[in-house]
Structure formats: C-alpha cells, structure tokens
Amino acid sequence: MERRIRAAAPDVVWVGLGTPKQERWMYDHLERLGVPVMAGVGAAFDFIAGTVRQAPVWMQENGVEWLFRLTQEPRRLWRRYLVLGSRFACEVLLELLGDKKSG
User: Fold this and answer.
1) Whether residue 48 is found in the same domain as residue 58
2) What would the mean pLDDT of 26-41 be, rounded to a whole number?
3) Are residues 46 and 1 in the same domain?
4) Number of C-alpha atoms within 13 angstroms, CB side, residue 71?
5) Which of 7, 21, 99, 103 is the most buried (most CB within 10 A)?
6) Are residues 59 and 20 in the same domain?
7) Exposed, middle or buried by CB within 10 Å (0-12, 13-18, 19+), for 51?
8) pTM score of the predicted model
9) What is the mean pLDDT of residues 30-41?
10) Over the stretch 37-96, which tens digit does the pLDDT of each residue have?
11) Domain range holding 39?
C-alpha cells in the first residue's frame, strides 16, 4: 500500500481507521509516505456511506454526539469515552487551574 500511495503522490491522504488506530498509522507512515498532509477522519466515511447512523442534529449541535455513538457501540466505545475521556477532561481542568507543572 505504501508503494501505491507514494506512486500516486497525493497532496492529502485521508485515513479512516478510527481513534487511536488512525493516529498511530499516520505517525508510523508519515515519513515513509512523504505526503504533505494526512488527515484522520474517523467515522466520517462510514457516515457518508450510510453504514453507521449519525446522531440527531440536536445532539451534534449540543456536543453530545459522543453519547449517541456510545449507545450505538457501547462495547467498542465505553473505555474511550468514559475512561479516557474523563481522564483527559481532568487533565485539562488541572492544567487550567494551574495545578499541573509544565515541563
């Protein structure tokens, strides 16, 4: 696949593997592919293809699309949203409060 991407010489490579797999893939392949831009699009391709339902507009507009996705795929997403998301929110809050040492 790397050879085909290099041969095509794209300006942008869209990666839809889901988090964190797509971020790891882009990091591992960035230098080998030599493309100017790689963009992780998560489930966007699935939404466009109609293979995954998107949250109602009111949920999207109010920042709770994650809750809809969690109800659709709880086994796959519970840890990402509830454990890792909570940890991230706590880290951000501590940083904002100045309790974290910058380093």
Assistant:
1) no
2) 93
3) yes
4) 9
5) 21
6) no
7) exposed
8) 0.62
9) 92
10) 999 998 889 889 999 899 999 999 999 999 999 999 899 889 888 888 888 889 999 989
11) 1-52
